[in-house]
Specification:
The chain is α+β, with helices and mostly antiparallel strands. It has two domains: 102 residues, no CATH class; 48 residues. It is 32% helix and 21% strand. It has five helices and nine strands. The strands form two sheets. Strands 1-5-4-3-2 form a five-stranded antiparallel sheet, with helices on one face. Strands 6-8-9-7 form a four-stranded mixed sheet. It is elongated.
């Protein structure tokens, strides 16, 4: 069963014993765009203040707000502990309740988050991270059918959890040779 952690929980910090750890930073170009937006908005404030000396404060305030926004958007951390638990943002998932798992490539992301999405699913989605992992649960105590978690390295997350990627197994089975006919299955 998944459980949220409090931000003050010492277990929420990275330890050297973690099998995997990733922080979902925003792309670097967003910071450059933030600088440009801060400059434009600061200039607008300066124009509205008719060039008063205090209008410089507008640049500082806008830059600080944009910096805080980008920093807070990139704070999400994905970890796999030494005990085999996935910690996605503030929730914990023991690997013992995971029935099967699959990586979700960028090409299948919109389908996974679109009409196929179960409203009861647990999501840790960041739009700027193109790939995800899908973890189907088998826990009678938890109504959550599956987790979808954004990660830049889905294979590493599944390997850290000691789970087999069902997507790769399906692709390997589809390309295997039928021994009785000697032809490739399709």
């Amino acid at each position: 069963m998944s459980s949220p952690q409090s931000p003050a929980d010492p277990a929420a910090h990275v330890t050297p014993a973690d099998r995997y750890s990733e922080r979902l930073h925003v792309p670097a170009w967003w910071w450059l765009a933030g600088i440009v937006v801060a400059g434009v908005l600061g200039y607008e404030i300066s124009l509205a203040a008719h060039g008063a000396s205090w209008s410089v404060v507008g640049y500082v305030v806008v830059a600080a707000l944009i910096g805080w926004l980008l920093w807070s958007m990139g704070r999400t951390r994905i970890r796999v502990t030494a005990a085999g638990e996935l910690i996605a943002d503030k929730a914990t998932l023991p690997v013992s309740v995971v029935e099967r798992a699959a990586s979700v490539p960028a090409s299948a992301k919109s389908a996974a988050l679109g009409r196929q999405l179960d409203p009861a699913a647990y999501l840790v989605h960041r739009a700027w991270v193109k790939t995800m992992v899908l973890l189907v649960l088998n826990d009678a105590d938890d109504p959550t059918p599956y987790w979808i978690v954004s990660t830049r390295h889905p294979e590493q997350v599944l390997a850290a959890l000691n789970l087999v990627d069902a997507r790769q197994n399906h692709n390997a089975a589809a390309g295997s040779t039928d021994e009785s006919t000697g032809e490739a299955e399709k």
